[in-house]
Request: fold
Amino acid sequence: TARRAGTLAGAVASGRIGLEELSLAAPDFAAEDCPELLRQLGLFGAGGPAAIANPGENG
Reply:
């Protein structure tokens, strides 16, 4: 698990598992969709992604 490895864990709810149920696993960050998780991590906000390249830009 992330906690055992000394890192933070992030999770995104899906159609099968809702945010409330997902929160029972106690992730450090939990969101209803990927853009929300990226906002929580400070990687996505006003003006678009700050630290994530668009697909295809990495070669």
Observations:
- The beta strands are 10-12, 29-31, 44-45, 48-49.
- Residues 2-43 form one domain.
- The chain has one domain: 2-43.
